[in-house]
Write a structure and sequence with these properties.
193 residues; Ferritin; mainly alpha; 7 helices
Length: 193
């Protein structure tokens, strides 16, 4: 199994193994503007929430780096490059929302690694053409969509929106990338989750 084959499960595992689900207070911080009585969350809950949110920040850092590596590879057609830069911008917005949430919980946001570490983790040296890059991006986006979908059931009815919105973005990215690769439209529904 290659390094890139391991990427999707590791992205899901980052969120799944963080321990506990987001408390209502932590999710409210992610959603922004919603208020939940802070006394309902213990310090342990808030610490756990910050860990889970930091795992999500790690996913976003990885996505941002992957698109940066792709953008500077010289392997992408201009139209594909524009799409990648747009998707990278979406990941930066996701990261920024998650960072705000971790800070609001009193935590320290996960740091970004140096770009060359991501390049090694993503096996960027094996990317030799646009198709290779698109396949890597598609695996990462599908993994991210599934990771965010995994959070939704554990969130309160009023606070599952942010994970759902981010999962929607990731699924949208995956659909565009699959189309660019010429993948057929799946015949079966429920392809994520």
């Amino acid at each position: 199994m290659s390094n890139s084959d391991l990427l999707m499960p590791s992205r899901r595992a980052m969120l799944g193994t963080a321990g506990r689900t987001l408390s209502l207070a932590g999710v409210a911080m992610v959603v922004g503007g919603c208020s939940v009585a802070a006394p309902t969350a213990t310090a342990d809950d808030m610490s756990s929430d910050a860990q889970i949110l930091n795992a999500a920040i790690g996913l976003e850092h990885e996505g941002i780096a992957a698109y940066q590596i792709a953008a500077t590879s010289g392997l992408l057609d201009p139209a594909v490059l524009d799409i990648g830069i747009t998707f990278q911008g979406h990941h930066k917005q996701h990261r920024d929302e998650l960072v705000k949430a971790v800070l609001a919980l009193g935590g320290v946001p996960a740091e970004e690694k140096p770009l060359d570490e991501y390049a090694v983790d993503l096996d960027a040296a094996s990317l030799s053409n646009q198709t290779d890059i698109l396949k890597l991006a598609l695996r990462l986006e599908r993994g991210a969509a599934n990771a965010y979908l995994g959070l939704i059931p554990s969130l309160g009815n009023d606070f599952h929106q942010i994970a759902a919105r981010m999962a929607g973005d990731e699924a949208f990215h995956a659909a565009i990338l699959a189309n660019a690769l010429g993948e057929p439209i799946p015949q079966s529904a429920l392809m994520f989750g």
